[in-house]
Specification:
- 4 copies of one chain form a homotetramer.
- Chain A is built from 9 helices and 10 strands.
- By secondary structure, chain A is an alpha/beta fold.
- Chain A has one domain: Aldolase class I (TIM Barrel, Alpha-Beta Barrel), CATH 3.20.20.
- In chain A, helix 4 packs across helix 5.
Chain lengths: 277, 277, 277, 277
């Protein structure tokens, strides 16, 4: 028997659908929907971010992403704009009506971020940061739980179990590639895990093809594969000028390329009878 | 610069398309086509095999698979029917008109198999069996080169390079999952590698969702993901009675479930403008 | 060029030696010394812990370990005694004179633990918890930084770099096994990494053969291998009654077996001209 | 229960010791002995090889290695001298009295090599080449079975089981590093596996620190670790001029460095009560 309970479909047979107010309409994440989240890796500049937000809104994006505190492997890399970026993200929300998602890296930031951000993201490196998971279990906000880059499916669902056990059922799982021996891609995207989790669990699962591959040329095909395999959506990095991005430029699409991706995703969503709003 | 040459699209920009006579028509494998290969893991019984071959033909399958010599991890497991099975496969071809594919495990079998089998498969464990690759480079028969279960993309293309360097350009690459830390699935299917190889190389790439996942419940979603990501086809294990299969029963579809898979694959092939014959 | 600076031997050619007052004498960790840290995985019971501490002291152990907050994969597993255990550890220190080490899981606990614990351990799952690393960089206490179970050597040294960059040079690296495809052992101990880090960095490196193997029968041979390869010490789990341990019993040595291990380690330390105090 | 039988200590409780005539004396491989095998990766030049063989003999080496057919990842790399090299190796044996070991890559070479070579090596890429294993099971010559670079301990022992099941009990296992996510070392040497196999199986286990690390600076510490952990010997690449070696120069020791390694190994063998002849 599997060691997780609340995350299991045996416990909750019905699919968990997360609903977010987005201006006048509502965005859904879960079975039957195809939700597209997009934005730059990090918020770098107010004007550029607002302009991009408008472009993405027009292209059909439902949720806007942006990084404030960047967990970087080296202490000498760009660490994010921090709170300054938060105001920019909130401004983008009020202009476009799109809910916003950003990463929370420390339980101490929760009070501050709680009523400003629509979805709190737990990054791959923090998937087993149990004190953070415990705090997120006590709130009612949606949490996007990225898979640890070397976490098994079981460990991932057990991390969700920590949050569920605290009382918060609004969890979105996000596959972002795992670490293997392969070096031509940044990570190895595990689309088989997506198919399996859709069977084992009631929680929504989305795929981040940008981190999963680390190469913009692979983002669109892997995004297609994700939807075809049964994912409930994708989260994609977009940047107006990827070559000058302060982080993750190599895996970012330009807005033009993103539009082409979106068209293909729409076709696949329709074929799979998924609503793409 | 990449260390492979003949396998690279820089060397041969045009897609390699492999054509096989199949009764009165021709089967193609390569860009623009969606080729479906199916059959049981091992040929076990004449009557059952012929019956299955007819069912698969009717379902739309283009190429028939069957294992004669099974490379098994334990010497105490079923090792295949050997040459006895070859006659059964040839009979199935003459009844259905489908080309047949089987694994070659030893260069010494080449003379014997050469004019009886339409595609010679190099299994995952033999991907770096260079004496076998050298021999296959000297013939003109199509070779399906499965990725070693721990081979990098580079090593895989260099294994193809051995065959190409010998003079044989009729190579089909087959992704069948790689070994990672994950244990819920038998292997981790690397669909990002499929997308990347379609960009790096002119060779056709297909996906084996049966070995890649080890679970029949995941075969159909992963097959869908493969086509959506850009694979040129799939190879699927089908068995009339998976519970009694002498090998790989857990990952085999029943003919009924295979028909459902085929319908979904057809939809995806059309969406991607791929011919499925 | 390597991306780490302060952790590199090019920057600080001399070995970093960490010194701790231990009652009337001083314990050293670093090149030329062989330091043995031992204790139970978790502090479970006052009397048992104090008794074990005395046994270990007598056996030659220099530093006493004990877990207070256990980071467990499942929320339903024993989570540690928490602060109640801290008093027990401090009592053991005052009885035996041994410095004590325990894991810190949350930056919020730092104020509280700072003057009660001699070495603060960062666990494998928190190796890239950058907000925690930042806080530990601001203090002057020794920090034991365990390798993330899927961290590369480079990422591990960059995590140390975060602490060094904050101003704290008292870092002990601890190899505790990495995650691979192998399942017969809990992790794969990477003794090659120990040898390499001793060349790349001036920081002390010790090995935890208990977590690295997950099997008590392997603890002693792997501990020997660690010292022979050049590690500056070992950290070993010991429990009076491993079958009843609330966590990690399978990898815990009894005190009797630990004594045998200690004898062998002494022999190897002498052969390598390492002081074992 | 474990799936292997003949390889298990439950089946044969006594240690398997392999004895080889070496001129006037006998070389043993197995529990209680520390056997040192050394030589260049590939036989490249008669004079250099004979000179090196004499140096190694003098340094204490018991068995001489040399590669004739090199399994190279790229078809454009040096492939070995082939049969020409065999005469050179036989000449080195007659001059030094040392038994010789080389890799067999194809079952078709067995008749030819059988009475010329003292130990036949199965390389990492061929560990699951079952037609080769079957042939080696039919002979009485010692076989060194290197671990596949991604083989589990179970698969490795099952590969040995193929040979044992054919009737040949003269098997030496050789750990040569496994493939992981780490890139600072060529492979990750799995010394925990060595300790475990010594408990599970009666077969001798040696370690190849050269392939395991890919860096000559790590060869000596890892060789020490291997003996301390319980390995029955080591196999080391030595070359007079590593910078000009046609293969594996980066991981080859000079004869001078090898002498220092040998001294350290002798100390460890004595400490562990192993005979080093």
């Amino acid at each position: 028997m599997r060691p997780f309970k609340l995350a299991s479909r045996d416990f909750y047979p019905a699919d968990t659908i997360i609903s977010l107010k987005a201006g006048e309409k509502t965005v859904h994440i879960g079975e039957g929907y195809c939700t597209v989240i997009a934005g730059p890796c990090a918020v770098e500049d107010r004007e550029a971010y607002l302009q991009l937000a408008l472009l993405l809104k027009k292209a059909g994006v439902q949720i806007l992403r942006g990084g404030l505190f960047k967990p970087r492997t080296s202490p000498y890399s760009f660490q994010g704009l921090g709170l300054e970026g938060l105001d920019i993200m909130m401004e983008a929300r009020s202009i476009t009506g799109m809910p916003i998602i950003t990463e929370i890296m420390d339980a101490r930031d929760l009070d501050f971020l709680y009523d400003k951000i629509d979805i709190l993201q737990v990054g791959s490196r923090n998937m087993q940061n149990y004190t953070l998971l415990d705090e997120l279990g006590k709130i009612d906000k949606p949490v996007m739980l990225k898979r640890g880059f070397s976490a098994t499916i079981e460990e991932w669902l057990l991390a969700a179990e920590y949050i569920l056990n605290g009382g918060n059922r609004n969890i979105i799982l996000c596959e972002r590639g795992i670490r293997t021996f392969e070096t031509y891609t940044r990570n190895t995207v595990d689309l088989g895990a997506v198919a399996l989790i859709k069977q084992l669990s009631h929680l929504p699962v989305i795929v981040d093809p940008s981190h999963a591959t680390g190469k913009w040329k692979l983002v669109t095909p892997v995004a297609r594969g994700a939807i075809a395999v049964g994912a409930d959506g994708i989260m994609v990095e977009v940047h107006q000028d990827p070559d000058r991005a302060l982080s993750d430029g190599k895996q970012s699409l330009t807005p033009e390329r993103f539009e082409l991706l979106y068209e293909q995703i729409k076709g696949l969503a329709r074929l799979a009878d998924k609503t793409i709003e």
